[in-house]
Amino acid sequence: VLTLAAAALCVGLRFEDTIQAMRPAGNPGVAVRDEVGRRFGTSFDQMMLLIEAEELEEVLELAERATERGRELVASGGLSGFDSVTGILPPLASQQESLRWLEEQRQVVDAERVRASFNAALAAEGMRAAPFEAGLELFAAATGRAEPVTVAELESSEQMRRLLDRYLRHDDRGWSTVVYLYPPPPPGRWRREPPPAAVRLAEELGPAAALTGFNTVSAFFRSLVLTDARLAALVGIVLVALLLWLDYRRLGDTLLSLAPLAVGIVWMLGAMVALGIAMNFMNIFVSTMIIGIGVDYGVHMIHRHRESRGAGVEQRLEGLVETGKAIALAALSTMIGFGSLSLSHYPGLRSMGMVAILGAMTTSLVAITVLPAWFALRLGMRRRSGLGC
């Protein structure tokens, strides 16, 4: 009954695959970040679109394509925003096009004409022109420019160099830039995996672009960890079964030794669901460790049963009780050793300790209850059939 109930609960076992969920609670920085995100309806879980190429112009052109596509995605709701180097350093072709437009519209954007018109409007409204001089000077510098902006020119200013460093890098392999992409609302919706729109954007840019971020890493870890955990569990069970068969040379005893492990793991997973403990990147491998820990309990009971063949019922009972006490003590020491992790403030370590406690407890309970009951049932059936002990 317990096994069936635990198996039914196992359906509700969930895998917590966000790295943020493993952070200790009560971090004031994280609390403030989440509060800001709720108040402004945004998220700090930004993604980064890394673009790499040998030439600067190729990097800037790809960043410009990402920017244009980003505007479309923001308008359609696929993203909540983006941030790119092209806001301060557009590609050369875009700059030349802007310079041609300025040359064609020289009379319209003439700085002196705009200044005179603006000052006249200020005077008509009774306002002073001095507070606006800095803005007018910037306007004159922008519209009077005849050459494209270069990286060297931007880096000549310390403030611009630090700003440019957020987006653009150069090393022996060439140039690289980062386009920051912000997931669409509600905040936290895309913590498990990247939005499809961001994935498509990276694919459209070709092999020179790669998408990364917390959600991308979480999706990769989830796939990798689940695959590795399944493989580790399968390899572990096969190798353990082979070792047991080499020891017993009997398939029945081999399966009996594995029974406490199989039933105990079902109980453990059911207990995790009942207690609200989710599987995560760390405690999933504790589940595979239980294979090595839990199978020992069944092995001890099987060996004691085999050694007491031919003895009387009382001697068999006494032997199983003694072995059961040893198994209980071994399980308690394991639970205390691994269980100390459950006192950690780090959620990942705490979940490892709790899963280890449940695994050692359930596999040992099955070994000292279900196996002796099975032995007694078989013994009673053999005695009734006249086959003796």
Helix content: 55-70%
Number of continuous helical runs: 14
Proportion of β residues?
Answer: 5-15%
Average predicted confidence as pLDDT: 85
Shape: elongated
Rg over CA atoms:
34 Å
Quickly give the structural class: alpha+beta
Order of H and E elements: HEHEHEHHHHHEEHEHHEHHH
Largest sheet at a glance?
5 strands, antiparallel
Quantity of strands, as a count: 7
Low-confidence regions: none
Termini Cα gap = 29 Å
Gist of the model:
With 389 residues, this protein is α+β, with helices and mostly antiparallel strands. It is built from 14 helices and 7 strands.
List the helices and strands and how they pair.
Layout: H1 2-10, E1 15-16, H2 28-40, E2 47-53, H3 56-76, E3 81-83, H4 92-104, H5 111-124, H6 133-143, H7 151-155, H8 158-165, E4 168-171, E5 174-182, H9 196-205, E6 209-213, H10 214-248, H11 251-275, E7 279-280, H12 284-307, H13 313-339, H14 347-384
Parallel strand pairs: 1-7
Antiparallel strand pairs: 2-5, 2-6, 3-5, 4-5
Helix pairs in contact: 1-11, 3-9, 10-11, 10-12, 11-12, 11-14, 12-13, 12-14, 13-14
Task: Describe, in plain words, how this protein is organized in 3D.
- This protein has 389 residues and is an alpha+beta fold.
- Helix content is 65%, strand content 8%.
- It is built from 14 helices and 7 strands.
- Strands 2, 3, 4, 5 and 6 form a 5-stranded antiparallel sheet that branches.
- A hairpin with a 2-residue loop joins strand 4 and strand 5.
- The two termini are 29 Å apart.
- The model has no long low-confidence stretch (mean pLDDT 85).
